[in-house]
# Entry
Amino acid sequence: MKFPHAFVFAAVIAAHAARAADPSNAVPRNLSLELTVIRFKPESKEQVLQDFHLAGASSNVVETLRTQGRSVDVVYRGIRDLALEPKAMAKFDATETRPVILVGKPGVPVPPAAVYGLTLQVTVRPVGDDSFVLAWEGNLNWSPDLMDRRTGMQNTFQFLGKASAVAQSASQLAGDSGGAVKGGADIGFAVAELFKGGNADSSIFELPVLKTVGLNGSRACRSGQLIVSTTAAEAGVKEPQILFFVLAPRLEP
Amino acid sequence: MKPFLLSSLLVAATAFAAPSEGQVLVLTNEVSAASVASVVSENIAVTVTLLRHRPTQHLPVAEEKIGDCNSLPELARVLRAAGPLEVLSHSRREVACAPHARAEFGASESRQSYIASDPAASPTHEAFGLELHADVAVLARGSATRPPVLVLSWEGSWAGSVTLLATWEKLAVRGFNIARAVPGITYTKVEPDEDGFVNTGGGTDIGGFFRKKKPKADAKKGNPPANPEASKGPAAPGITHEREPSYSAEPPPDKIPLQGQWIGPAGQMLVTRRVLSAVENSGDLYLVVRAERID
# Structure
């Protein structure tokens, strides 16, 4: 009865091949997604249009950029693990806001509090044994004003105690700065950090610029391939800056 | 066959059909959403760049010089040799076309303000910058020696500060490399009056897409154009010193529509130019779009 055995064997092989061909039937593997958001200040404005040919791991990207510009800031870095199966999804949400309190002035409308940070959702769809499609959707709210200010602060994050120093670098539209520093200490650390003005009742306070970058895109890729999206964050007559969104997928063995 | 599957196939077949010369192929959201195939065609990187150029001789750079440029840095060098050049926006996105995909190039900024004594009177905080998306559809896959054939369309707007755009009186859009590469290039018309501009040309003619700005909406009714100075409104109190233009203290931005469509092999640099004719703020606005295959 060799024929039935051979027939069954062939059927098993065919079924196995069918399962291998259909990604939905394959045993899911683990996929690690690393997202790094980098703010880069190039040496010259011409570099805004340059293709940096980034490759390798995110640490290599940072090192590569460091050699070609004035400064590299890692704005965000996150790793998510997920099973490589249809409709797999990972979120890279990391936002922050700084609410304002006006001490001793109940009922007075408070300044708007912007939400800064990253909101990004990545979906994965396997299309083969080692290949998959990544699709991402989200945005980044950020402010170079805040970032540079924080970078310049020594032993920072004690905003209340450092209110005066912070206010020195805040944008000013009007008034005497000395009064604003004291006023900032009175009305709360958030206001002290964000505002500067003379007579607090008559001044116009200007919040840090709020920049929003859309990040929608997709890519068919394999493990180890680097996905790089860029946006010129500051250009024109301003100091050139570039935002890099580096997504590094890696299939676990 | 299930109705949904049939409709999807019809939509996909419509999307795959190469348009004849002069035909306008409109990529709608319906097509993009319904025709997501299970097989990936190509990975495409789309780069969108917005440049502002102020030629020292107050004359735009010759079209031939622009058309001879094969790369963005080369274009920048040509423009910079003729006057100051500013990079207003430069973004790169990747898309997996199966066969359609969309990339977002939104990059806007706003600066909120606050008057402590009267928060309701705080200046507006309009968003400035680029709002643009690009749709990419692969009509024919490429090979090792031949790039894929794409339908690339982009639509959006640029919201510029009053110092940049409010005094524009005449806009012109021209295609450069595209005219040489693909005779069948098509532009879709912008809805008239939607943005305060009127189409005086358009269609499939390269370089025939000229648009003139209406004086103001009041001109429709026979009234004289509004005083541009008056439209700025009262200056925000307390601003006494020179600084960069404050978005919060300026009127809402003028939105310039950016729209185009192109059919042809990947890798072409598509350049459109809008000519500013205002005396005190003359210059050109260049939109450069490029789609390339990546592995």
User: Anything to note?
Assistant: The helical segments of chain B are 3-16, 29-34, 63-67, 72-82, 162-165, 177-181, 228-231. Confidence is low (pLDDT under 50) at residues 1-38, 162-250 of chain B.
